[in-house]
UniProtKB/TrEMBL annotation:
<dbReference type="GO" id="GO:0005525">
    <property type="term" value="F:GTP binding"/>
</dbReference>
<keyword id="KW-0328">Glycosyltransferase</keyword>
<keyword id="KW-0808">Transferase</keyword>
<comment type="pathway">
    <text>Protein modification; protein glycosylation.</text>
</comment>
<dbReference type="Pfam" id="PF00350">
    <property type="entry name" value="Dynamin_N"/>
</dbReference>
<dbReference type="InterPro" id="IPR022812">
    <property type="entry name" value="Dynamin"/>
</dbReference>
<keyword id="KW-0472">Membrane</keyword>
<feature type="transmembrane region" description="Helical">
    <location>
        <begin position="6"/>
        <end position="25"/>
    </location>
</feature>
<dbReference type="InterPro" id="IPR001401">
    <property type="entry name" value="Dynamin_GTPase"/>
</dbReference>
<dbReference type="InterPro" id="IPR045063">
    <property type="entry name" value="Dynamin_N"/>
</dbReference>
<dbReference type="InterPro" id="IPR027417">
    <property type="entry name" value="P-loop_NTPase"/>
</dbReference>
<dbReference type="GO" id="GO:0003924">
    <property type="term" value="F:GTPase activity"/>
</dbReference>
<dbReference type="InterPro" id="IPR026051">
    <property type="entry name" value="ALG1-like"/>
</dbReference>
<dbReference type="InterPro" id="IPR030381">
    <property type="entry name" value="G_DYNAMIN_dom"/>
</dbReference>
<protein>
    <recommendedName>
        <fullName>Chitobiosyldiphosphodolichol beta-mannosyltransferase</fullName>
        <ecNumber>2.4.1.142</ecNumber>
    </recommendedName>
</protein>
<keyword id="KW-1133">Transmembrane helix</keyword>
<keyword id="KW-0256">Endoplasmic reticulum</keyword>
């Protein structure tokens, strides 16, 4: 049944695309796009990177483009121009962006039923992308796409590669992660770093991830921070925010728009954290403590992706430090409960390996985090305890 559905959907998409391509613009009919001709110097050959989405929010495909220009090649990016490109691609003489036209307002109308909206949206995207790839961008030696999504990206890339004599290269990274998510489910583990405030967690995180986290004398971590390391040819740090599910639609959209890309050698991480605090509405030192629009802690997640050729595939989550006494004009009893619940939520996850950071100058028997860990892992099979110098 699954094979029949796949064949049927592919056939329907191909029909829609074929009809749309020939009705998109009269001058397309009977006009064959120019074919790829090898250049005398291979570095002058064009490589086309197709993103059926916002190019600025596709770091992996941008890294492919950066790798091309670092090796002296020319890259043509095809996709929606909504977010800023990676700094290494902006105004580079060997990188060109060919933007796709936006969807008409009618196709953005969510009130229309999907069985009507879906096919017309596919037709529009297919026709617009075909026109840009076949007639606006020069013929390329290679076409690079990412799968998923495959409809209509894969079908279009196949058609263009045949018409223009290009080679097709598919990045299956997303597909690989989809398979892992389906077959392994919740067995993919991550490390959660827990401890009291100023227990030394920042130093431990620096040792694990290789770069320094901002330190402060008072509260440091105001929200969960997810640090994902992955191996890649290009070195970079990409920072974004995952809104809490309870956020309003407008707030969630605003937080999703928070995107930062910095180099590993860049020392501006503290500024990025400050910007994230502002985006989440975290109360700062100079803010009015009575303001109801600001909070001391947030249930949003700051996501940091560290890429580089020496990075290991690892996910670490840092949660706010546990504290037991509220401070006037800074924290409340509700904040104490919120942080405890946040820590408990992460350490009770079946995928969690708990890394409890204990200051060397305190009695281990007084550490509440060990009691909480023992409640969820009585045998201590998923608990690591580490002594650290208090910050």
């Amino acid at each position: 049944m699954a094979l029949v559905n796949l064949i049927t959907s592919t056939a329907l998409v191909t029909i829609f695309m074929t009809l749309g391509i020939f009705f998109y613009s009269p001058h397309l009919v009977g006009f064959i796009p120019t074919r790829y001709v090898p250049s005398a110097d291979a570095r002058d050959d064009h490589i086309q990177v197709l993103v059926l989405g916002d190019v600025g929010r596709s770091p992996r495909m941008q890294y492919h483009a950066i790798s091309v220009i670092k090796n002296g090649g020319r890259v043509d990016l095809v996709g929606y121009n909504e977010s800023p490109l990676h700094p290494q691609l902006v105004d580079h003489d060997r990188a060109t962006l060919y933007p796709l036209p936006e969807l008409p307002a009618l196709l953005k109308n969510k009130k229309l039923p999907f069985f009507i909206l879906g096919p017309f949206k596919v037709i529009w995207q297919a026709c617009a992308t075909f026109y840009v790839m076949a007639y606006q961008a020069p013929a390329s030696r290679w076409i690079i796409i990412q799968n998923p999504p495959s409809i209509p990206t894969l079908h279009l890339a196949l058609i263009i590669s045949v018409l223009r004599g290009s080679h097709l290269l598919v990045d299956w990274h997303n597909y690989g992660w989809s398979i892992l998510a389906t077959t392994r489910g919740r067995s993919n583990r991550f490390l959660v770093v827990v401890g009291d405030q100023s227990s030394g967690k920042s130093s431990v995180l620096e040792s694990l991830t290789g770069f320094a986290f901002p330190r402060a004398a008072g509260l440091c971590t105001r929200y969960a921070t997810q640090i994902t390391s992955r191996r890649d040819d290009s070195e970079s740090i990409d920072v974004s925010i995952i809104p809490h599910p309870s956020s309003s639609e407008s707030r969630a959209e605003q937080l999703r728009g928070f995107q930062r890309s910095i180099n590993i050698e860049d020392l501006a991480l503290a500024e990025v954290f400050a910007d994230a605090n502002n985006a989440m509405g975290i109360r700062g030192d100079g803010d009015d403590p009575s303001s109801t629009d600001l909070t001391t802690f947030s249930e949003d997640i700051l996501k940091i992706v560290i890429s580089g050729p020496t990075q290991q595939h690892l996910t670490i989550i840092d949660v706010p430090g546990i504290f037991r006494t509220s401070t006037e004009n800074l924290t409340t009893d509700d904040d104490i409960l919120l942080v405890r619940n946040m820590v408990k939520k992460y350490i009770t996850d079946q995928r969690t390996i708990i890394l409890a950071v204990i200051p060397c100058n305190v009695d281990i028997a007084t550490q509440e985090v060990l009691t909480m860990a023992k409640e969820v892992d009585p045998d201590g099979l998923l608990l690591l305890s580490l002594g650290a110098v208090a910050e």
